[in-house]
Amino acid sequence: MTAGDGTRDPFDAFRADVDVRATGSGATTRAATGGEAGHRSVAVVGGAMAGLAAAHAFSRLDWGVVLFERQTFDEKRVNCGEAMTDVTRIPLAKTAENGFANDTPTFEVQVFTGDVDDRELAGTGRFPASRAYVTDRALVERAWASRLRANGVDVRENTGVSKADFEELCETHDLVVDATGQPSLASKIEGTTAEYAGAMTALNADVEGDFSDLYPDSRIVFENYLGYSWVFPKSESRANVGIGWAQDRQPESYMAAFEAACERNDWPVPTREQANVYTIPRGPSLDPDRTWLPDRGVVRVGDAAGIANRFTGKGISQAIESSYLAAALADAGALDDYPDALYARLRDEYRLAYVVRGALEDGRPDILSGVMEAVSGIDVEDVDRNPRKAFARLARHPVLVANMLGSKPMLKRAWRAWTNDWEFKHLDATAR
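Now predict its structure.
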């Protein structure tokens, strides 16, 4: 269950824990026309979680903030990323009115031998969720935008930003935060959308049904294909259900595969009209050096920075962290440090996700179930965000580790992960 909200602003708490030193480089702007504290301006393009976090952080630092969102928050329909595993960094009261529906205490992970009727359960893991909520994300974003507006942020919803508009923002503001997703608007302007090295595709929907046997817990299901499905109850009668796949292992029909997964797992089957499709970065899908574009005065955050967990698909915590980090460094004149600092904070998470995902790629539910059972009991947020706990647990299971490293493909993955040999390094040089 989630701890109390406390009274300290979450960005202020984050900033106090980050070692930020002014570099003297002045690396916060393209034109650097002013730059005095209280007189700097930032344009944030994209009003999802990363953009909202960036707008919040810069407003706490007394920058002038303009936030652009192409949809209206009242009409926006977004229900990806609704299981948020660390809501303590969101500066909202955790109420149903603000979109926090279910203070879910546990995430259960089931690993099956396949996705057919005669599949067998290979193993399970249960992960406490001390900071998690299943949310109505559209309501969370609406409440956050309303709070920003009340605190003086110029929130311009229903306002798309064209390439020409983006270029003008770069000229008229000290900094532009690109929170437009993968591929980002900055990449589209530069003609470098191919610089991203992979993604996952997911479908999900809100459905009504009887979830009383599971609620208030949540469940993730692996069925020996390169992806997973889930059910995140919001109440005993309503839930978010979904399914995701690696970009290079997608089914012929997304909707047919989604319907089949719901039927197999005895979940209500959504209609096409209920289903949303979205893209999740296969982090790190973008060269970290490309997250800060000093010549343009553009810093990329969240999905635009290519950061999400390639195994679990989680990206909300990472998005908020990237935005808070960018703001803290920008305010200290240290944005040149952002690429290395962001990568350093996520590197171990990337490594664990890359290696464990190999069990799916190799069709080894025995290994995956062994991993889940070994790390069971660690907080669901810490499994990803503090992977040293997971590594320590795995070290207590030498037979499992031997099986993992006894597979040549998995051994190769471990080597590539520990030498930082990511897919973006193997793209055509013209894409980067």
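The CA atoms of residues 85 and 132 lie 4 Å apart.
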